From TrEMBL:
PANTHER family: ASPARTATE-SEMIALDEHYDE DEHYDROGENASE (PTHR46718). Gene3D superfamilies: Dihydrodipicolinate Reductase, domain 2, NAD(P)-binding Rossmann-like Domain. One of its GO terms (molecular function) is NAD binding. Residues 7-110 form the Semialdehyde dehydrogenase NAD-binding domain. It holds the Pfam family Semialdhyde_dh. GO terms for biological process: methionine biosynthetic process; threonine biosynthetic process. The lineage of its organism: Bacteria, Candidatus Aerophobota. This is Semialdehyde dehydrogenase NAD-binding domain-containing protein.
Length: 174
């Protein structure tokens, strides 16, 4: 364990993903959750600078991609590293889409990202693929390393289950 835990903040703590982040951070050996502001504060003048003064790392569980795009970039510009759960960054070629066990070296993109977006200090944004893709790739990666997989196919019913729909295949699949 570290002598002193790294202070972190969490935005979007009231949603389901945010609540899970809160539980995980409560007893984390390396991170100390020091700030979880109410959603109403996120777009206030000076908010990004305030949160950056509390925490060099900010976990984001914001659901609304429009809000996430603006708020997360402002926090990154203020100097904090944002670890985003939002889909809004997944198509940006300068935002690393990280599965640590597979492509940690993609964090090197942060240097280009900081220059391109004019981010201060260690500010930046990293994100993760959606949970379905991550759970698919983790077991395939060692197989790829050992045998050189060329392709793989996957079918997911995530959209069905994520909407809370009845999972009966005959009524939900064309």
């Amino acid at each position: 364990m570290l002598e002193q835990k790294v202070p972190v903040a969490l935005i979007g703590a009231s949603g389901l993903v945010g609540q899970m982040y809160t539980r995980l951070l409560e007893s984390h050996p390396y991170f100390d959750l020091v700030y979880a502001p109410p959603t109403a504060d996120l777009e206030k003048e000076g908010f990004a600078e305030l949160i950056a003064s509390y925490a060099p790392i900010v976990f984001s569980a914001l659901k609304d991609t429009k809000i996430a795009t603006d708020v997360e970039m402002n926090i990154a510009r203020a100097g904090s590293l944002v670890i985003s759960n939002s889909a809004c960054w997944r198509e940006d070629p300068l935002v690393p889409l990280i599965i640590p066990e597979i492509n940690l070296s993609h964090l090197n993109l942060l240097t280009l990202q900081r220059k391109h977006y004019g981010l201060k200090g260690k500010g930046g944004i990293i994100t993760k693929p959606n949970c379905t893709l991550a759970s698919f790739l983790l077991p395939l990666f060692p197989l790829h390393q050992k045998f050189g997989l060329k392709s793989a196919m996957m079918v997911s019913f995530q959209a069905t289950s994520g909407m809370g729909k009845d999972f009966a295949l005959n009524s939900n699949v064309l």
